[in-house]
Specification:
This protein is of the alpha+beta class. Helices cover 44% and strands 15% of the residues. The chain has four domains: 188 residues, Roll (PH-domain like), CATH 2.30.29.230; 61 residues, no CATH class; 199 residues, Orthogonal Bundle (Cyclin A, domain 1), CATH 1.10.472; 128 residues, putative rabgap domain of human tbc1 domain family member 14 like domains (Helicase, Ruva Protein, domain 3), CATH 1.10.8. The strands form three sheets. The protein has a seven-stranded antiparallel β-sheet, sandwiched between helices. α11 crosses α14 and α11 crosses α16. The two termini are 57 Å apart.
């Protein structure tokens, strides 16, 4: 390893034992080898290291398993000349193999009979180091204590690690910071490992980075995680450019681009396997898009008119329609958002809501006390809570700091933002905190100006958005497929152009979907958009039509300028803070009416927008709960070169052709 290598210890636990078997060079079966297990960051590579308590390791007996080979080469003790050559070979192997994250574990040679060795020196002493990215699975077993069997992707198993003094849970929790651990099908004791190149710990931070776009490709290749790049374009540009080579070289096909992006964003791989059998239909004529009008925001007086004497909301469909058409005046938001988000039931009386608030206040502070009362010693032993706190503190300090509600040092709004997010970790510890969630909370707290109300409204919003932040990101994958399907229906020529630029999956819309346009619009416009979308009108997944409306406004620029992959990303990223919310909402509603008026609308489109709710029942839920639809939408190319879309749901299969 180079002398100037940077090593950062991320986890360390002593008292981890190896139990050599009786056939390990004649070693006594009951002999135990105690060592230290560490997770370290070596020059931005996450490594696992195990070292015996003794420092000395005989280099003349080494067992090495190469990353790119399943073969095992054993080095045995021989003459002095051979040993000298072996030492030289060992040094070159360590230097070369460390660069490709090889695995090596060493053991002491058997005694040669010259002199006596004490008991501690007779046992084998092993050390091994491997990259987390080379880890395939971990089997967790119990023998009165826990021991772990680690298997690598392309070599034999490592020696089992026995945690006689605890620490196995902490080790696995630390490992989860850098890898996805999921139960193997049919074997709950086996954890399968997926390591998408740092994505688990950094993908959201990269996606939500607001720094400038437009850095040279060489910087991307040198250090993609230090080089700053605006939003999702940072990740996609690096991945695309780093693997496709020069501009003159052929571009990788879309499925390979999707695979590469999937390494950076866990779970984003989009399956391009063609589903056999489909119904071919001609290019659909949607007719002329109707012109729709927007109205002014609902006033406090109009809001009051929709309440009876006991405080129940009346004529709710009319009220929701009025909110959808014009939004709310700010004076009404504090009360109305509680209904729109489901914190307050629409049919509740004023007294019932007061009782609900009292109960929810008590519940909130009981959860808040859980993390407030954790001692430093307890938190030191709870890596997940420690990581959640670290991420929250980092994000809170940079969330909407130009807004007067959050600006300045020691701002009370920042304290509330921090405390609500920490309490949410207690409410949903499995999800905890993921970067981007502070963006969803900030406008709610700004409107509520109350810690408890803001928390429960945020909980309701997260019920809708939860699937965006899950590790496997199935909800995000589904939405991207659905959006691609809608755009293909609305403008096949534009979609074909994007596909020709390896952009048919619309990855550049990732941030729009992830945090509901929070970084694309001014703060006040975000308030307007969210309250309109929370009405549930005029269709399911209306936010996808908002995406379509924005893309519809930009398609001429993109196509006329003949933008390629990088230029499309750059252009979309630079739309931030330049969008007209009223124009977008007007066009989005017009698109909805246009699609709904189509007589021969494919069922797949009806499913996405919820037009067939009477027929499809519970499957008309949000996009995060549509695995059948997600699996059914698989783009491919027809033999005549035209792109087609296959979709299956309830035995309906459709293909669009131009």
């Amino acid at each position: 390893m180079a002398a100037d290598s940077v090593i950062k210890v991320l986890f360390e636990h002593e008292g981890v034992f190896i139990h050599p078997s009786s056939d390990d060079d004649g070693v006594e079966q009951d002999l135990l080898i105690s060592g230290s297990l560490r997770i370290v960051d070596k020059d931005a590579e996450i490594m696992v290291e195990y070292k015996p308590l003794e420092d000395a390791v005989d280099p003349t007996n080494m067992l090495c398993a190469g990353k790119d080979s399943s073969s095992v080469v054993e080095w045995v003790q021989s003459s002095g000349e051979r040993s000298h050559q072996l030492l030289e070979s060992q040094q070159s192997y360590e230097t070369e193999w460390d660069m490709i994250n090889a695995v090596s574990f060493k053991k002491k040679a058997c005694t040669n009979g010259e002199g006596s060795l004490n008991h501690s020196h007779e046992r084998s002493r092993w050390a091994f180091t491997f990259s987390v990215s080379d880890l395939r699975s971990i089997t967790v077993k119990q023998e009165g204590w826990t021991f772990l069997i680690l298997k690598l992707k392309e070599s034999s198993s490592l020696p089992p690690l026995h945690f006689h003094q605890g620490g196995s849970t902490e080790f696995l929790d630390s490992l989860r910071r850098f890898a996805l651990l999921s139960e193997a099908p049919g074997d709950e004791m086996c954890l399968m490992i997926s390591t998408p190149n740092k994505a688990l710990s950094q993908s959201f931070e990269n996606l939500l980075d607001d720094n400038n776009f437009g850095l040279v490709h060489q910087k991307f290749r040198k250090d993609p995680y230090v080089t700053t790049l605006g939003g999702f374009s940072k990740v996609t540009n690096y991945i695309f450019d780093a693997f496709r080579g020069t501009e003159e070289q052929h571009q990788r096909p879309p499925e390979e681009v999707a695979d590469l992006l999937g390494e950076v964003i866990p779970g984003l791989e989009i399956n391009q396997q063609e589903e056999p059998g489909f119904e071919v239909i001609t290019r659909i004529d949607l007719g002329t898009r109707p012109q729709v009008t927007r109205e002014g925001p609902l006033s406090a007086e109009d809001w009051t008119k929709h309440q009876d004497q006991e405080g129940r909301m009346t004529n709710i469909p009319h009220l929701k329609h009025a909110i959808f058409k014009g939004g709310l005046c700010h004076a009404v938001r504090k009360e109305a958002w509680k209904f729109l988000l489901g914190y307050f039931p629409w049919e509740s009386t004023l007294e019932e809501r007061k009782a609900l608030q009292r109960a929810k206040t008590d519940e909130y502070f009981r959860m808040k006390l859980q993390w407030k009362s954790v001692s430093e010693e307890q938190e030191r032993r709870n890596s997940r809570l420690r990581d959640y706190r670290s991420l929250i503190e980092k994000d809170v300090n940079r969330t909407d700091r130009t807004n007067r509600f959050y600006e300045g040092i020691d701002n009370p709004g920042l304290v509330l933002l921090h405390d609500i997010l920490m309490t949410y970790c207690m409410f949903d510890f499995d999800l905890g905190y993921v970067q981007g969630m502070s963006d969803l909370l900030s406008p709610i707290l700004y409107v509520m100006e109350n810690e408890v109300d803001a928390f429960w409204c945020f909980v309701s919003f997260m019920d809708q958005m939860h699937h965006n932040f899950e590790e496997q990101m199935q909800g995000m994958k589904t939405q991207l497929i659905q959006l691609s399907t809608l755009l293909r229906l609305l403008d096949l020529s534009f979609w074909n152009y994007l596909e020709s630029q390896d952009s048919g999956y619309l990855y550049f819309c990732f941030r729009w979907l992830l945090i509901r346009f929070k970084r694309e619009l001014s703060f006040q416009d975000v308030l307007r958009l969210w309250e309109v979308m929370w009405t549930g009108l005029p269709c399911q997944n209306f936010h996808l039509l908002v995406c379509c409306a924005i893309l519809d406004s930009e398609k001429h620029k993109i196509m006329e300028e003949n933008y390629g992959f990088n230029e499309i990303l750059k252009h979309i990223n630079e739309l931030s803070m330049k969008l007209d919310i009223e124009e977008i909402l007007q066009k989005s509603e017009g698109i909805c009416v246009q699609i709904k008026s189509c007589k021969d609308l494919p069922q797949s489109i009806s499913l996405i927008l919820g037009f067939d709710s009477a027929d499809c029942g519970s499957e008309q839920t949000d996009c995060g709960s549509a695995p059948a639809l997600r699996a059914a939408l698989r783009p491919d190319a027809c033999s005549n070169g035209h792109l087609r879309q296959t979709s299956s749901h309830n035995s309906c299969k459709v293909a669009f052709i131009s």
